[in-house]
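Subject: for your reference before the review

Hello V.,

The reviewers asked for a structural picture of the protein, and I figured it would be easier to keep everything in one thread rather than splitting it across files. Below is the amino acid sequence we used in the manuscript, unchanged from the supplementary table.
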Amino acid sequence: MGGRWRRGVPSSLVKLIRNGASGGAVLQPWPSLAANDPTDCAKLQYVQSMEIDVNGIMWVIDVGRKYFADEGGPDNSCPPKIVFIDVPTGSVLEDETYTFPADVCPYDGCFLNDIAVDVARQVGYISNTGNNASDPGGIIAYDRTTRQSRRFDDERLQAEHPP
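And here is what came back from the structure prediction:
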């Protein structure tokens, strides 16, 4: 897993493949190279975090924004979303992909960071570090059952910045 800080990164979600003969390892786009297409906002753009629940479902946090280190960056054209992948089959559950609305996660400021999953309730709690005046950060909850998200804002939930 790794973000697209610069153009040319072929995949934002990978798996490590070990070569038994040489003992070396390579990174392979996962679940596929096509699922990591940086030109298609419906695909994985900038995977920041993920959790696998006891049912073998990977909850993938996709920041959407990318190319932070490129001149003229970042690219804010893709929205933040949560993607679900069946780990045993590697199938993206496309009908369950959820794009966060701009009032919950502003596309030009939101930076979804980590997720904790309450499996019994099917709720993901996601930290949002934010990074500008349009989004100072907070916590976002996503309810997989109702397909709704909610933002929790409070100054105590925001990142502390040194003076």
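For the response letter, the relevant points are probably these. The chain has a mean pLDDT of 89. The two ends are 32 Å apart (CA to CA).

Happy to draft the paragraph if you're swamped.

O.
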